[in-house]
Amino acid sequence: MARKKGRRRFGWVRKLPSGRFQASYLGPDEKRHNAPETFATEKDADRWLVHVEGAILRSEWMDPERAKIRLQDYAESWVNERPGLRPRTVHLYDWLLTKYVTPHLGDTQLGKLDTPMIRTWRAKLLREGVSASMTAKAYRLLRAVLMTAANEDRIIPRNPCQVRGAGSENPDERPVLTVAQVFDLASRMAEKRYRAFVLLAAFATLRWGEITALRRQDIAPDASSVRVRGAFVELPGRGLIYGPPKSRAGLRTVAVPEAIRADLLAHLDEFTGSKPDAWVFTGKRGNPLRRGDFNPRTGWKAAVKAVGVPHLHFHDLRHTGNTLAARTKASTKDLMARMGHDSPRAAMIYQHATSEADQEIARGLSGLVDRERGTKATDEEDDGQAGVLAPVG
Question: In CA terms, which of 3, 157, 338, 342 is 20 to 30 Å from 9?
Answer without folding.
Answer: 157
